[in-house]
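Example record for the data management plan.
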Amino acid sequence: MRASNYYRTAEFFLHGNPTDPRILETWGKSRNTFRQAIQLMDTLVEQVEIAYEGTYLPGYFYRVDDLQRPTLMVHGGFDSTG
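Corresponding structural encoding:
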């Protein structure tokens, strides 16, 4: 999880030059290390696809337990981790 956050932080500061080719590469490393980290967590985290205007948005569902409960969807801004 720490590696993912380091990559996320580095990617954020690359946006001074929107054409910097390191942006997508660094973002991908952040996402990949995050996905590796969730496999090691005690909490079940499921990768999901949320239908949106003819396509989908990738997301993560953090399941607390097996009870049926309302689900809260949170969409962060530009500088958030998703």
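Summary line stored alongside the record: The chain has one domain: 2-63.
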